[in-house]
Amino acid sequence: MGARPMKRWPSSPPHGLKPAPGYLGAEFWNPEQEANILARALDQATFAQQAGVSELYVAAGGFDKTMGRGLTRRQIAGHVQPEDSMSDAEYAHFARVLNQVGEITLAKGVRSCFHNHVGTVIETRDEIDHLWSLVDHDLVFMGPDTGHLAWAGADVVAFCRDYAAHIKTMHIKDIDPTVLVEGVVNEWD
Questions:
Q1: Could you tell me the mean pLDDT of each successive run of 10 residues in the chain, 189 residues long?
Q2: C-alpha span between 111 and 100 (Å, rounded)
């Protein structure tokens, strides 16, 4: 990660600013990436701890992963079908690695918060719910993105209500409903 955060961040930042959580995006479902992900998690957690940040966003990658209909997740962003989901084995591996990441980061006082993102392998409410049913809620927390939830077709208020006890940080974004419809219709990625 380079220099220690305290060399980059003043001890008394102007205007009361504080560093925001970092972001660890990875192919959690891919066994070949596991060792790299765990090493990156330790680096990120160490950096966050030194910077005084208590959360880390953890998110799926997979923008270029080809799914059931033969399309990439980037191509189906905003209009994912059930057949576009990962296999049960991939979900299980994803959850297992995410739990390990949570264990690593908690040892540094940093909570790993799952972060949804359109165009990744975990985009829809159903996909989030499926993953959430497999993770250890003492190790993994929630850090949703309201704009990406809306783009994926979720009821943002209901999602936040349902997951309120698990949400530790979030990206709050506004989304213009007419732009959302235009983006889905035109298959923007």
A1: 56 76 97 98 96 95 92 90 95 99 99 96 97 98 95 94 98 86 76
A2: 12
Task: Name the strands in the sheet holding 140-142, side by side, starting at the edge strand that comes first in the sequence.
Answer: 22-26, 55-60, 111-114, 140-142
pTM of the full predicted structure? 0.89
Q: Which residue, chain included where needed, has tokens 């264990």? A: 103
The domains located in the chain, with CATH, are: 19-185 (3.20.20.150)
Question: 75-110 b/e with 16+ CB inside 10 Å = b?
Answer: bbbbebeeebbbeeebbebbbbbbbbbbbbbbebeb
What does the DSSP 8-state code read for residue 72? B
Residue 77 CB contacts under 8 Å (≥ 6 apart), including other chains? 118, 119, 123, 151, 187, 188, 189
The rounded distance, in Å, linking the Cα atoms of 45 and 181 is 38
Other beta carbons within 10 angstroms of residue 175's beta carbon come to: 15
